[in-house]
């Protein structure tokens, strides 16, 4: 168990650093899942899909450099499924006391992204996005 937690810690530290570099807002971590968003904490109306796609690609590449267990190189490197969707969300600060307040996103947009990551038919090591995210990404790429 300690090695699993160490692997997850190393992965999340990597994602946190990448998120800061790419201006992706970290929403939450739940177990092995890391969720971030663009156009939330920082206004990015004409580039948020492009920023998220870039972050997703860099995250997949970074996972391929993180050992599952540094003491057992034969286990290889981390392989992850990354999914992103673009659309409206509901956002709120939740929690019952100052010590456990957190920012949370809700709605179909979040659910669509989560489903992409959980779909075992989607290959690890690739970025998966919905048609809606793909179309927005094409528009924003044309604007670049």
From TrEMBL:
**Which parts of the sequence belong to the Guanylate cyclase domain?**
1-117
* UniProt entry keywords in alphabetical sequence: Lyase, Membrane, Nucleotide-binding, Transmembrane, Transmembrane helix
> Where does this polypeptide localize?
Membrane
In which organism is this protein found? Answer: Amphora coffeiformis
**Where does the protein principally reside?**
membrane
The name of this protein is Guanylate cyclase domain-containing protein
Q: Name one GO molecular function term.
A: peptide receptor activity
Q: Report whether Transmembrane shows up as a keyword of the record.
A: yes
Q: Which Gene3D superfamilies match?
A: Nucleotide cyclase
Alphabetically, which GO biological process terms does the record hold? intracellular signal transduction; receptor guanylyl cyclase signaling pathway
- What InterPro entries is this protein classified in? A/G_cyclase, Cyclic_nucleotide_synthase, Nucleotide_cyclase
**Highest taxon above the source species:** Eukaryota
* This protein's GO CC annotations: plasma membrane
């Amino acid at each position: 168990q300690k090695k699993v937690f160490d692997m997850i810690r190393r992965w999340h530290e990597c994602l946190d650093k990448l998120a800061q570099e790419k201006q992706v807002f970290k929403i939450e971590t739940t177990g092995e899942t890391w969720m971030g968003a663009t156009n939330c904490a920082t206004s990015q109306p004409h580039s948020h899909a492009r920023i998220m796609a870039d972050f997703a690609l860099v995250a997949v590449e970074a996972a391929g450099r993180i050992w599952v267990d540094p003491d057992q190189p034969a286990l290889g490197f981390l392989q992850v499924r990354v999914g992103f969707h673009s659309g409206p969300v509901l956002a709120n600060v939740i929690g019952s006391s100052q010590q456990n307040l957190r920012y949370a996103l809700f709605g179909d947009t979040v659910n669509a992204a989560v489903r992409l990551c959980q779909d075992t038919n989607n290959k690890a090591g690739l970025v998966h996005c919905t048609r809606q995210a793909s179309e927005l990404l094409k528009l924003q790429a044309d604007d670049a």
